[in-house]
Amino acid sequence: MIEIEALTKVYGPARAPAVDEVSLYVPRGSVFGFLGPNGAGKTTTIKMLAGLITPDSGRVRLGGYDVARQRSAAMAQFGAVLEGSRNVYWSLSAWQNLMYFGRLKGLRKAQVAERAEDLLTDLGLWERRDDKVGGFSRGMQQKVAIAAALIAGPPIVLLDEPTLGLDVEATRTVKNWIVEQARELGTTILLTTHQLDVAQELCDRVAVMRQGRLVADLPTRELLARFRERDRYEIRVEGAAPPGFDAVARDGVTTISVRVSDPIEVYEVVERLRAHGAVIESLTQVQPGLEDVFVSLLNEPSHAA
Ligand SMILES: Nc1ncnc2c1ncn2[C@@H]1O[C@H](COP(=O)(O)OP(=O)(O)OP(=O)(O)O)[C@@H](O)[C@H]1O
Asked: Which residues form the ABC transporter domain (predicted)?
């Protein structure tokens, strides 16, 4: 579990805080998405969690250990992939990297070997284990970086843009693997991403940051539901739409877009269409995706969550 209390970081006296009184709670075994536009303060927050930057105020506890006061116990709680493949040795093979990082974390050789085999197999790298990482593709290097960070099986995993630059197949492998770690091993995962479809698919809960502050922190499902009143409906009719309806015609089918605050209004529109003699082919509710929600949140006037 990750507990963050009123965390604040100011990079310079003349600058607005990069992270401004951010508080978050991430329960054990959950996948938590940390979203926000460039410069919102996500990486700064994650680096404070990892003890790489000292906060100006506030505190962080990882697995119950205070990062400032119980540093070594807190550090033993997590593995992090913050700058991807830059954290692994390119002149070593995938296997040698994992052995090195496993030994560094204090594991016995046999323990590291067992865990390395599992990780490399899960991430689809077992066949290439003896090849130098420098000759790997970017996606493969990212996977080795993830495996190296997690070799000791830490209860908390911090991932900055885990699927950035990965192809479809590698993205799927990493996504499945993230969910598996959380569901099967109870690992707590905090990740940042700009890929909102990845966040929507993976995360139990998401927080959205803007200009150093949290503008939302909710279960993903609730965040989507909260914006449901902005749902649109699409009514498809045969032929042309009667006058006065907001419609787009393509290939002989006309789609009428309706925005309502109460679903009952949709049926009133349907009745009006029928009264005009329109033949209705389908009626669909257009659900907002995380991307729509994200854009709405960032366009709302500034306020604390
Ligand atoms: N080392 C630093 N020195 C000074 N300012 C910094 C430093 N690192 C980040 N900042 C500033 O802090 C703010 C937050 O940056 P941060 O990297 O945390 O954002 P981010 O949400 O991770 O962005 P991105 O999505 O682009 O990675 C920005 O205004 C950035 O310019």
From this structure: 2-236
